[in-house]
Write a structure and sequence with these properties.
mainly alpha, transport, 106 residues
C-alpha cells in the first residue's frame, strides 16, 4: 500500500506544480487554493509512504514522478518545447526511478 500512496503523492506533486504556475505567483485564488490543497495531500501521502519505505527510495521516487510529470504536463498543456535532449533527460529519470524501485526490498 505504501507504493500506492507514494505514486499518488507524486501525481499530486504534478498537480500542485501545474496549478502553482497557473496561480501566477499566488495572485489567482482558485489555482492558489488547488496548489495548497495538492501540496498538503502530496506531503501527507509521502509521509504515510515513508513509514515503511526507506527515505532515499521514497523521496527519489516522489520527486522523480513530479519532475517527469511536470515535464509531460508542460509539453501537453503549456506549449513547452520538446527536444531530443529534454526527452533523453526524461527517459533517464524514468530509468532511474525504475532502478530505484527494483533495488528496494519493499
Amino acid at each position: 500500500m505504501s507504493w500506492t500512496y507514494l505514486v499518488v503523492a507524486g501525481l499530486l506533486e504534478v498537480v500542485w506544480a501545474y496549478f502553482m504556475k497557473q496561480s501566477e505567483g499566488f495572485t489567482r485564488l482558485i489555482p492558489s487554493l488547488i496548489t495548497i490543497a495538492a501540496m498538503i495531500g502530496s506531503f501527507g501521502l509521502l509521509l504515510i509512504a515513508m513509514r515503511t519505505l526507506p527515505l532515499g527510495t521514497a523521496y527519489t521516487i516522489w520527486t522523480g514522478i513530479g519532475a517527469v510529470g511536470a515535464f509531460v504536463v508542460g509539453i501537453l498543456f503549456l506549449g513547452e518545447q520538446i527536444s531530443v535532449t529534454r526527452f533523453l533527460a526524461a527517459f533517464l529519470l524514468i530509468a532511474g526511478l525504475i532502478l530505484m524501485k527494483l533495488s528496494s526490498n519493499h
